[in-house]
Structure to design on (377 residues):
């Protein structure tokens, strides 16, 4: 009797640890906690703040059907956004805008960052990455002011100099030390980032220096991307495309310790040389299997090409597919915890709202025609 109670006491801490380990999930899964940040595949919402829904009459410049908060709750862990300067007669402000703030203005950068921060604070076991496309040529100081206005401070992750210097001592890395002097191929586990409370990773494309805001990381010092300007499902390629220093040399990119970001979205021609996200083929583009250019097959091709799964996969209309299914498969995750289940439907003015959306689309097209022809991704 006594010895049984004693045995129970001895095994209690271990049992508790097991029980706790089972209920603690990092990025929606207990099995990801011990994995390094660069050894998991993060699902990315391309142009995260540019939402195409009833509120904007299904604006064709929108890349997602759900806002950034919903994206995060549904499993997205990388949010990309373009930043542009508003053109006001007084002083311009940094906004999240698609190509131009006259075309699609999703509001102040600080407000969008604040939305992300609110979600992060409410979800303490999640690591989230933000990728800002710096169309405004903002300096680190300008961007830091937006982060401060958003109330973001100690939640940001800054790679340690130790990791950076240990990475630079590896021979393959040293060959290109000048172009990627601040990068590191050594990343902590999700659990250690969560335990430290530094769970927001911030990349900027591009940033000449990050003086005064060392958490703002120049994207192409850490990441390489395949091509992104694809209009046909046969266009998808795994080959390194950016930065230019590794274009068409995937092996060099990998040897430098750069993390692969797989762009996987299609644009369509909408006239006047302008492109918009292709939503008519999206069920296949984001599909786990099926037709030409499906996400599952492309992910497998890139995994084989890189010798490991892509670190980031960036898609339009992330809910369709659902794209997260392919990411879960790459991560070997089947024990999902705390993720919101949302519709995988394609949405449009005809499916979700009255015909006013078409008028708005035409107005948008006209605006587009008289404006910038260069489409940032
Ligand atoms: C993580 O590491 C495992 C084992 O080496 C590998 O199979 C997998 O592809 C890696 N995933 C990523 C995203 O690096
Ligand atoms: C995001 O969308 C959801 C669902 O439509 C809505 O409830 C929520 O208020 C939105 N959040 C923000 C920050 O716009
Ligand atoms: C900003 O607005 C002014 C006045 O409307 C215009 O002349 C100028 O070309 C605009 N600049 C840009 C970059 O759009
Ligand atoms: C956690 O914080 C400690 C102390 O500041 C630091 O040495 C360590 O590198 C941090 N780890 C991570 C994963 O950020
Ligand atoms: C960093 O960038 C700022 C803004 O462009 C510039 O003023 C500063 O001289 C740069 N600092 C270094 C060390 O290059
Ligand atoms: C990369 O390869 C593609 C296809 O062969 C070619 O069109 C492109 O010009 C190459 N780019 C560079 C920078 O070499
Ligand atoms: C979207 O892509 C598919 C596949 O290439 C194509 O058949 C379709 O016409 C495109 N949609 C539009 C509106 O261009
Ligand atoms: C998510 O919703 C879909 C459609 O409503 C349903 O088929 C699926 O079983 C749900 N998945 C989970 C994990 O609840």
């Amino acid at each position: 009797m006594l010895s049984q109670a004693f045995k129970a006491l001895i095994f209690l801490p271990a049992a508790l640890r097991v029980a706790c380990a089972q209920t603690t999930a990092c990025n929606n899964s207990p099995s990801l906690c011990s994995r390094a940040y660069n050894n998991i595949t993060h699902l990315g919402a391309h142009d995260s703040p540019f939402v195409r829904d009833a509120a904007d009459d299904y604006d064709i410049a929108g890349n997602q059907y759900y806002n950034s908060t919903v994206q995060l709750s549904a499993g997205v862990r990388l949010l990309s956004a373009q930043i542009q300067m508003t053109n006001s007669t007084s002083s311009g402000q940094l906004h999240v805008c698609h190509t131009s703030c006259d075309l699609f203005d999703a509001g102040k950068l600080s407000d969008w960052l604040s939305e992300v921060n609110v979600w992060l604070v409410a979800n303490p076991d999640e690591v989230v990455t933000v990728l800002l496309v710096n169309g405004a040529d903002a300096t680190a100081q300008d961007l830091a002011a937006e982060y401060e206005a958003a109330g973001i401070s100690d939640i940001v992750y800054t790679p340690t100099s130790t990791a950076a210097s240990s990475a630079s001592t590896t021979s393959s890395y040293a060959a290109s030390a000048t172009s990627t002097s601040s990068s590191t191929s050594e990343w902590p586990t999700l659990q250690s980032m969560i335990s430290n409370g530094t769970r927001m990773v911030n990349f900027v494309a591009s940033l000449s220096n990050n003086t005064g805001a060392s958490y703002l990381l120049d994207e192409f010092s850490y990441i390489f991307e395949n091509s992104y300007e694809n209009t046909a499902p046969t266009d998808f390629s795994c080959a390194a495309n950016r930065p230019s220093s590794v274009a068409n040399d995937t092996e060099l990119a990998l040897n430098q310790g750069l993390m692969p970001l797989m762009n996987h979205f299609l644009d369509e021609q909408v006239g006047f040389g302008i492109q918009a996200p292709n939503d008519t083929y999206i069920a296949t583009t984001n599909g786990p299997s099926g037709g030409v250019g499906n996400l599952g097959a492309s992910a497998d091709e890139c995994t084989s090409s890189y010798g490991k799964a892509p670190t980031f996969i960036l898609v339009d209309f992330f809910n369709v597919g659902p794209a997260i299914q392919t990411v879960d498969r790459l991560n070997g995750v089947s024990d999902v915890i705390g993720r919101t289940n949302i519709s995988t439907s394609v949405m449009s003015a005809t499916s979700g709202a009255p015909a006013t959306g078409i008028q708005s689309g035409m107005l948008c097209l006209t605006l587009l025609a008289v404006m910038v022809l260069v489409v940032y991704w």
User: Anything to note?
Assistant: The pocket of 2-acetamido-2-deoxy-beta-D-glucopyranose (ligand 1) is lined by residues 39-41, 308-309, 311 (CB under 6 Å). Residues 12-22, 162-182, 353-377 have pLDDT under 50 and may be disordered.
